[in-house]
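lol forgot to send this yesterday, sorry. struct tokens for the thing we talked abt
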């Protein structure tokens, strides 16, 4: 049986190979015996489809719902759910996947453009459709051959925080700060105190680890080793692990929070993983007057500082957990500046040596 746990999800995942094809999906159950029975049934279905020539048809909306179910417990699940209304509005959602055409996809792109949606959001929508289509094909459903339209993303300058900007942001996140609209410290509710402390602590960890938001927001205590000062970080997006060593301030934050008897370092009011909850951080960014800044900017800030202080893009790739070096190459121009500065220093030393020992 190939029943596994995956990342921070509480559900069992079914994973196996058949005829060289990898199949994986969430069972949406915490009962291992139920998951094992689902695996048997799924294998039987695939076997009958491949060897008896029977392939089921499936509407796009049903395939989407099955695909979304595999992301239960992951950060992307909420985004997929939020995107359902877009798919319903811009696609023939009840069409069977073997009836969907490339023209339908092009119409989706054009409609989103006419609504004034940015290229990144349009590309994300097409990625959801492609993920649904690929997932249904893996399961053996009938699908049409599709050519997905390209979406050109204009290049923008790499945004990262200066030390002064970081100080302004942390000042606005300080859980002990006073300000307009805030009750005095003695009058604050426990809920408000926790909300403010969580936002501050989360940003510290994001700045000093360079991790993606979901990787830190949903991390469990079992991945934290305060004795060794390490974080065993599971990266669900690329499905790999990285062992990160804590900075002093990360160690201080985690040591303080470790007194709580919880499964997750950051939990919601029900005691589950925090999930995507960035409202407090975005408000602090606005109060600090940081333009073109979002939560992901903290990851860029970490990577940029490493490279500006002598680490190579290949070393930073390991820290960030990128599966493809091309993703890390967006920071290459910072490394090039370091290299050209070193070249200048070498030439200055050589030139000064020549001047002090002139040739007669």
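and heres what i got for the seq, position by position
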């Amino acid at each position: 049986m190939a029943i596994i746990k995956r990342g921070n999800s509480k559900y069992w995942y079914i994973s196996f190979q058949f005829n060289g094809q990898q199949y994986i999906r969430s069972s949406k159950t915490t009962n291992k015996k139920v998951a094992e029975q689902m695996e048997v049934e799924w294998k039987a279905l695939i076997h009958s489809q491949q060897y008896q020539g029977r392939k089921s048809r499936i509407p796009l909306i049903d395939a989407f719902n099955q695909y979304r179910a595999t992301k239960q417990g992951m950060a992307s699940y909420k985004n997929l759910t939020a995107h359902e209304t877009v798919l319903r509005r811009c696609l023939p959602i009840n069409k069977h996947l073997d009836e969907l055409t490339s023209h339908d996809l092009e119409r989706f792109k054009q409609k989103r453009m006419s609504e004034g949606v940015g290229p990144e959001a349009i590309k994300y929508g097409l990625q959801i459709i492609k993920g649904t289509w690929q997932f249904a094909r893996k399961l053996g459903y009938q699908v049409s051959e599709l050519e997905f339209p390209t979406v050109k993303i204009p290049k923008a300058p790499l945004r990262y925080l200066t030390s002064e900007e970081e100080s302004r942001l942390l000042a606005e996140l300080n859980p002990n700060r006073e300000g307009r609209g805030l009750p005095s410290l003695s009058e604050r509710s426990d809920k408000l105190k926790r909300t403010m402390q969580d936002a501050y602590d989360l940003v510290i960890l994001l700045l000093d680890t360079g991790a993606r938001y979901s990787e830190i927001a949903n991390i469990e205590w079992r991945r934290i080793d305060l004795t060794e000062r390490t974080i065993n970080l599971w990266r669900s997006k690329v499905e790999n692990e990285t062992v990160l060593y804590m900075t002093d301030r990360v160690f201080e934050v985690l040591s303080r929070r470790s007194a709580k008897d919880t499964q997750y370092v950051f939990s919601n009011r029900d005691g589950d993983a925090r999930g995507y909850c960035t409202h407090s951080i975005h408000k602090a960014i606005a109060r600090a007057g940081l333009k073109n800044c979002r939560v992901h900017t903290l990851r860029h800030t970490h990577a940029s500082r490493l490279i500006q202080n002598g680490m190579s893009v290949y070393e930073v790739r390991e820290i960030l957990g990128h599966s493809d070096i091309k993703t890390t190459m967006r920071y290459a121009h910072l490394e090039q500046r370091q290299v050209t500065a070193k070249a200048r220093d070498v030439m200055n030393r050589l030139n000064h040596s020549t001047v002090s020992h002139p040739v007669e």
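DSSP finds 14 helices and six strands in the chain. anyway ping me if u want another try
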